[in-house]
Amino acid sequence: MITLTGVTKTYRSGDIETAALKSIDLEIAEGEFAVILGPSGSGKSTLLNVISGLDTVTSGKISFRGKELTGLSESGMTRFRRQYLGFIFQQYNLLQNLTVYENIQIGSDIGTDPLDIDELLLKIGLEKTRNKYPSQLSGGEQQRVSVARSLAKNPAVIFCDEPTGSLDEANSKNVLKLLQELNREYRKTIVIITHNTGISEMSDKVIKMNSGKIVDITINPTKKDAKDIHWG
Ligand SMILES: Nc1ncnc2c1ncn2[C@@H]1O[C@H](COP(=O)(O)OP(=O)(O)OP(=O)(O)O)[C@@H](O)[C@H]1O
Fold first, then answer.
1. Is the pLDDT of residue 111 over 80?
2. From CA 126, how far away is CA 8, in angstroms rounded?
3. b/e map 59-75, b = 16+ CB within 10 Å
């Protein structure tokens, strides 16, 4: 579904060059649950940024469902992102003066084939909070709302950058369970960037990065349910 061939990214500021990605080859399959692990500075966020067109590559090619993305104009890339990609970050980024329902509605408004918001509220188990404001919810609940918001426009792929970074184990597992259900029931492709090795146990593919390179890719023969993963 997503194919990277010889992708490099070098940041330049003045005389200083940082090779953040060094000739990356990678395939993410349709419907796959993939996790990208690696120490701080290994290039995980840069990889996510170039795949999603938030940043450009220095060289190499990225294609999505056979169509080359590298080379698209900025507006072409924005259209691609809007149509196919959802994002979840460590910060929930909810709008504080909008209700839960309205926050999710922002996501569905930008989609061409959005999902039903009431159905999504049921799915995330927060139907009773539809008229509450983010400050009236726990961190875990807010993150589930941000998952629903990113899903509302019905994207093919959901990218998550440390989605459980601000949460305790119980709340993290609730968010991960939700992502697992979206993967299983809606066939969404999920790519999670994390430091948390426990998340590998529920993934199809575990991609390890170090110093701008992919150093290991493991395919899991069996996957655990989110609630059963080891929490270090
Ligand atoms: N905008 C930028 N300008 C210059 N260098 C950058 C920029 N963004 C990232 N880098 C450098 O590129 C390398 C990879 O950074 P990146 O943020 O992708 O790592 P990461 O694995 O996501 O780290 P973390 O887990 O801490 O978020 C690092 O050496 C970083 O300092």
1. no
2. 42
3. ebebebeeeebbebeee
Average pLDDT estimate for 83-102: 94
| Average of per-residue pLDDT across 87-105 | 94
Q: Which residues contact 126 (CB under 8 A, 6 or more apart)?
A: 100, 137, 141, 144, 145, 148
Write down the CATH number for the domain with range 2-228: 3.40.50.300
> Which residues have a Cβ under 8 Å from the Cβ of 16 and sit 6 or more positions away?
none
The residue ranges of every structural domain in the chain are 2-228
113 CA → ligand 1 middle, Å: 34
Beta carbons of 59 and 216 less than 8 angstroms apart? no
In three-state secondary structure terms, 185 is: helix
Instruction: Tokens for 27, please give them.
Output: 């395939």
Q: Is 86 in the pocket of ligand 1 (CB under 6 A)?
A: no
pTM of the model: 0.93
44 C-alpha vs ligand 1 centroid, how far in Å? 8
Q: What is the rounded average pLDDT for all residues in the chain?
A: 93
162, 93 contact by CB (below 8 A): no
Question: What DSSP state is assigned to residue 120?
Answer: H
